Amino acid sequence: MPRTLIVSDIHEPVTHPGAFDFVDSVAQRVQPDNVIFIGDVVDHHGISFWVKHPAAPGPKDEYELSLAGVQRWYKAYPDALVMIGNHDERPIRVAEKAGIPGSYLKDYATTWQTPGWRWLDEVVIDDVFYTHGTGRSGMNPAANLAKEISMSCVIGHVHSTGGIKWFANPTKRWFGMDTGCLVDDRLYAFAYGKRAKKKSVLGLGVVDSDDPMGTQFIPMPAGRGERFDRRNYPIHPLLKGRMA
């Protein structure tokens, strides 16, 4: 599997409205042998330990919105690998706090109707380590992990950084890639960062095991007037009026 497309954090249903078209445009160009969703496929704003935003839909509506979004991705990439993110596992953590055993809960593939997806904590493909990156922070989280484990790695989780940092010694070359995210910062789930100086870095990653020049972080052209400007897309009816 020499070429891998990494879809960064999409956080359904608060995904950037142009994210699907952006990923599709890159996939059509690079023709990946493998697709990996790097985690936080769903947001679960309504199921968490944190205070819920008053503009957010309830858990049932959020699930239905998320399911519709996930199904669109699943139909496009039915054989993808999915790294389990901290937002994906929120229902499990809430259940554990309430003393509910995991045997009472559905698995991810059943919940999201994705029998062809493999939901994993981590995976190694062609000597590259892929994981969501839960617990990582700072400006260079992937680079720091790559230094720790002395191998190439790809992580998501930290929305405010995207890019690649390379390392080398006399016998080896390796990298750390941060994939940014594909969310819509305007929506209720990200109201906590409304006044923050750091904003989400939109983009995705491509790893080419045969050609280092093909390994890259690709920013999403989503600024005003650019191809995937959010203003070119309608807002889902249940999200209208729910802006952060």
How is this fold's topology laid out?
Layout: E1 3-7, H1 19-30, E2 34-37, H2 59-76, E3 81-83, H3 90-97, H4 108-111, E4 118-120, E5 122-125, E6 128-131, H5 141-149, E7 152-155, E8 162-169, E9 172-179, E10 203-208, E11 216-219
Parallel strand pairs: 1-2, 2-3, 3-4, 6-7, 7-9
Antiparallel strand pairs: 1-10, 5-6, 8-9, 10-11
Q: How does this structure look, described?
A:
This protein is an alpha/beta fold. It has a domain at 3-126 and 180-192 and 207-239. 21% of the residues lie in helices and 22% in strands. The protein is built from 5 helices and 11 strands. It has helices spanning 19-30, 59-76, 90-97, 108-111, 141-149; strands spanning 3-7, 34-37, 81-83, 118-120, 122-125, 128-131, 152-155, 162-169, 172-179, 203-208, 216-219. The strands form 2 sheets. It has a 6-stranded mixed β-sheet, covered by helices on one side. Strands 5-6-7-9-8 form a 5-stranded mixed β-sheet, with helices on one face. Helix 5 (141-149) links the parallel strand 6 and strand 7. The longest helix has 18 residues, at 59-76. It starts with a strand and ends in a 25-residue tail after the last strand.
